[in-house]
């Protein structure tokens, strides 16, 4: 018999998570302004409502009321598709995250997770990889050279840092022995948080998360002093709002993912939740613990933004390819040596490692070919016009 209650549970959970993400993104803009004001000895928004708490609603109303402009020479379909993709890919990652323990309510065991698939980590990496299309399509469809240059920057940046991010996750998988997010959380509840065993892996993942979210010091696609307004320069009204919201949703989901992978997810530190049973209030406490960890990461993102200056683009690429990628490889090899038995028993994990190494090899070959071509062009120019490089 088909379980209609299960479908209803999942629909309610999906609606709740989307609503939560929107509210967190909305008030992250308020928190960003308040934190920036505190660090710069200012007051921040304080006019709309008590303590300025209605400022996000005023901003949303302003975006809805602004004129909708589509450039005449732009690719209209892709121009509209770009912000939609950015928003959808930002929300899709939340599907495999366990937001709390299984609770017993209305005589049913309800899992606070939309889809507990056995390739949860690979799903997250795949969805994160799709995020580059929202930026690239929006920049190209605008028919604006500044937007296109920002989109190319964003695409190269995200692809470069995804490699180190994937390798840092492989080290975590070698410890837990599973790609399923619920198993990763339960393993941490039994054996301690992964950040204890993988401090370098967490640091690499955190830096890559900053780059994936286009946050300072990696906000080169939005460098206003170089590219005016970046890849969304031609956008207005809610299309611009989708891009801005997607950035804050990505911040929130990144905080939740890091909390789940490295800090036990909904695990309450120094407390054995299993002794409490599966009452609804146990799941609520676990959810609040997970949200607290995610909010702390959002605060850290904002603190870094208003503290550290922006990199140059060559520094950004050097850090990704010459700094984080070798560190992630070294971390993965050391972890493989320590957890050798688990690695060789897990066939799916071996395939993930092999595929990641193949991607790195393909990327290295591509870069090598590009450098050779660039070097030959410089040599040819020096033959024709000596002294010009």
What is the 3D shape? globular
Name the poorly predicted regions. Answer: 385-389
Mean pLDDT: 82
- Provide the gyration radius in Å: 23 Å
DSSP strand count: 2
Secondary-structure-based class equals mainly alpha
Characterize the main sheet. 2 strands, antiparallel
Number of helices: 14
Number of structurally distinct domains? 2
Question: What percentage of amino acids are in beta strands?
Answer: under 5%
Give the distance, in angstroms, between the N- and C-terminal Cα atoms. Answer: 73 Å
Q: How much helicity do the residues have?
A: over 70%
Across the major sheet, the strand order is 1-2
List SSEs in N-to-C order: HHHEEHHHHHHHHHHH
Structure explained in plain terms:
There is one protein chain. The protein has helices at 4-39, 55-65, 76-92, 120-141, 145-176, 181-191, 194-197, 199-212, 224-227, 237-262, 280-305, 313-338, 340-345, 347-384, and strands spanning 103-105, 108-110. The chain is an all-alpha fold. It folds into two domains: 59-340, no CATH class; 346-389. A two-stranded antiparallel ribbon has the order 1-2. A hairpin with a 2-residue loop joins β1 (103-105) and β2 (108-110). α1 packs parallel to α11 and α10 crosses α11 (280-305). The longest helix is centred in the last third of the chain and has 38 residues, at 347-384. The chain is globular, with a radius of gyration of 23 Å. It starts with a helix and ends in a 5-residue tail after the last helix.
């Amino acid at each position: 018999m088909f379980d209609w209650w299960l479908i209803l549970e999942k629909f309610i959970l999906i609606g709740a998570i989307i609503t939560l993400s929107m509210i967190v993104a909305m008030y992250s803009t308020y928190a960003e302004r308040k934190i920036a004001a505190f660090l710069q000895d200012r007051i921040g928004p304080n006019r709309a409502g008590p303590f300025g708490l209605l400022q996000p609603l005023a901003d949303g109303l302003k975006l809805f009321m602004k004129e909708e402009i589509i450039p005449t020479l732009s690719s209209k379909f892709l121009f509209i598709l770009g912000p939609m993709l950015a928003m959808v890919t930002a929300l899709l990652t939340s599907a495999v995250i366990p937001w709390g323990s299984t609770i017993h309510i209305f005589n049913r065991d309800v899992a606070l997770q939309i889809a507990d698939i056995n390739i949860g980590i690979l799903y997250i990496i795949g969805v994160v990889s799709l995020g580059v299309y929202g930026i690239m399509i929006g920049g190209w469809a605008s028919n604006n050279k500044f937007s296109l240059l920002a989109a190319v920057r964003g695409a190269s940046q995200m692809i470069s840092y995804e490699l180190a991010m994937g390798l840092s996750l492989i080290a975590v998988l070698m410890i837990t022995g599973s790609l399923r997010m619920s198993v990763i959380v339960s393993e941490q509840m039994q054996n301690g948080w992964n950040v204890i065993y993988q401090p370098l892996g967490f640091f690499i993942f955190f830096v890559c998360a900053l780059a994936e979210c286009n946050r300072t010091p990696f906000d080169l696609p939005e460098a206003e002093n170089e590219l005016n307004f970046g890849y969304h320069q031609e956008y207005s009204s809610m299309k611009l709002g989708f891009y801005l919201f997607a950035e804050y949703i990505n911040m929130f989901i990144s905080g939740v993912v890091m909390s789940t992978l490295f800090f036990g997810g909904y695990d309450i530190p120094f407390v054995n939740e299993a002794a409490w049973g599966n009452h609804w209030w146990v799941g609520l406490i676990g959810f609040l613990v997970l949200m607290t960890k995610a909010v702390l990461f959002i605060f850290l993102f904002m603190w870094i933004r208003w503290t550290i200056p922006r990199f140059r683009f060559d520094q950004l690429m050097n850090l990704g390819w010459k700094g984080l990628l070798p560190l992630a490889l070294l971390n993965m090899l050391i972890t493989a040596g320590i957890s050798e038995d688990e690695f060789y028993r897990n066939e799916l994990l071996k395939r993930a490692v092999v595929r990641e190494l193949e991607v790195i090899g393909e990327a290295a070959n591509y870069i090598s070919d590009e450098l050779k071509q660039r070097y030959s062009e410089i040599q040819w120019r020096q033959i024709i016009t000596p002294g010009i490089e």
